[in-house]
Design brief:
With about 400 residues, this protein is α/β, with parallel strands linked by helices. The chain contains 16 helices and 14 strands. The radius of gyration is 20 Å and the shape is globular. Bound molecules: 1,4-dihydronicotinamide adenine dinucleotide.
Length: about 400
């Protein structure tokens, strides 16, 4: 039987867990490509002969997986040679560099996975890989199967929480893979999270968990007085009613966009796009203590134990909010700007998106939104559909 060769892109939390699990599977070779600084060298050195140790969450029996990826490199040609599957495990703002790096070497029927791809993954993939993308299955998930953190770089990571169910989509284009792409990925990550890719590609975009961070950041910090804090506030479990209002409002708008698209094109099934609280009830079934409403869900989800706001260390042991963290740097241009762009195409007003975006872009020093339109000078740095020339529903729905 041919060995399955899986290439993992990146060297962060998600890459560590995915690489550790992939390398532990029978007849599977795991490789890592990281283009960032000296990470490939550092990871190779840190791992030595010992390999990786991945601690799985207590909900799957406190299992510890030990394994050793075959190659960690910054050389795209070496990494991609003979790879059957390429898994993007990096923040979305780095995807462009990876797409450009794999473009010259990618072969037809290589399975491309956004894990998660985040909004705009397909638009960017088609834009950079062009015809080559049409000959590869492109899978995108709305999130990761895990909440996870590195314990020690190059040595191991811990899965803090596990989703029992993860939804995604697949664009098959003109590809002709000899195995079901989702089944291949399922074997790589293991059975604990059930993967499904039956959704329309717009569904994971509108359902994405990346819409969670900007409204929480906005509602938490919009009135901050600039004084450093003596503790790092809890990100999810520290939510108050105002933050929930904005989180829920953004989610309502995404659902409204999905409904508006289906009203115009009943053949497009986006019924799976549901309010965040309904996603959480399914995805985090085992870790939520009180599923009554979004507020209780966020407060009682043990997968979020200890997760705090991104903060910068200040002198005297104090902390200030970090507005350069991926919760804004990634989840605005590759998150709510994309959902806003689809809302514009669907003709759905988005007062929550607009209010949150107006604040976030100021913090990022960017201009995306002007009034309620995406006509700012920095739209070209985002992955909204308009950037790629998709301006009508027909444009969006042509992608298959
Ligand atoms: P991370 O923050 O650990 O990723 C860091 C890695 O990204 C670095 O090691 C490097 O390889 C790469 N990187 C960072 N800055 C770069 C730059 N300027 N240029 C090139 N590469 C750079 O991210 P993590 O936690 O692995 O997440 C990956 C994706 O999964 C993100 O989209 C995240 O939103 C998503 N996600 C993560 C979850 C988690 O629990 N870690 C949970 C749900 C989703």
């Amino acid at each position: 039987m041919t060995k399955l060769v899986v290439l993992i892109l990146g060297a962060g939390n998600a890459a560590h867990v995915t690489a550790g699990l992939a390398a532990s599977r029978e007849n599977t070779e795991a490789r890592i490509l990281t283009l960032f600084k000296d990470e490939a060298e550092r990871w190779t050195k840190a791992m030595g002969d010992e390999g990786l140790t991945i601690n799985l969450h207590e909900s799957v029996g406190d299992v510890t997986v030990k394994s050793k990826p075959a190659l960690i490199t910054k050389n795209p040609a070496k990494a991609i040679e003979g790879a059957h599957m390429i898994i993007f495990c990096v923040p979305a703002f780095t995807h462009q560099g990876y797409f450009e790096a794999i473009e010259p070497c990618i072969k037809p029927n290589t399975i491309i996975v956004g894990f998660p791809g985040q909004p705009g993954f397909e638009f960017q993939c088609l834009d950079i890989l062009k015809d080559k993308a049409r000959r590869c299955p492109i899978i995108n998930f709305e999130s990761l199967p895990w909440a996870c953190r590195i314990n020690e770089f190059g040595k191991g990571a811990t899965v803090l929480g596990l989703k029992v169910h993860l939804q995604g989509s697949i664009l098959k284009g003109e590809s002709n893979p000899d195995k079901d792409p989702c089944e291949v990925l399922q074997a790589v990550i293991g059975p604990e999270t059930k993967l499904e890719v039956g959704k329309h590609y717009l569904a994971p975009i509108l359902d994405t968990k990346s819409i969670v961070h900007p409204p929480i950041m906005y509602a938490k910090w919009r009135d901050w007085n600039g004084q450093p804090l003596s503790e790092k506030p809890l990100f999810y479990q520290g939510l108050d009613e105002t933050q929930i209002k904005y989180l829920s409002g953004i989610s309502d708008e995404c659902v409204a966009v999905a409904r508006a698209i289906t009203a115009k094109r009943p053949d497009i099934d986006l019924s799976g796009v549901v309010h965040l609280q309904d996603c959480y009830r399914v995805d985090y079934k085992d870790t939520i203590g009180d599923p009554t409403n979004l507020f209780t869900i966020m407060k009682s989800n043990s997968a979020y134990d200890g997760l705090v706001h991104p903060m910068i260390d200040e002198p005297n042991g104090k902390f200030s909010p970090n507005f350069r963290y991926r919760y804004l740097v990634e989840d605005v241009p590759d998150g709510i700007v994309v959902t806003k762009g689809i809302a514009l195409i669907a003709g759905v007003p988005t007062p929550y998106h607009d209010e949150v975006l107006a604040w976030c872009q100021k913090k990022l020093g960017k201009e995306y939104l002007v009034g309620t339109d995406l006509t700012g000078k920095d739209v070209k740095e985002t992955r909204c559909p308009q950037k790629y020339g998709y301006n009508t529903l027909e444009d969006l729905l042509r992608i298959k």
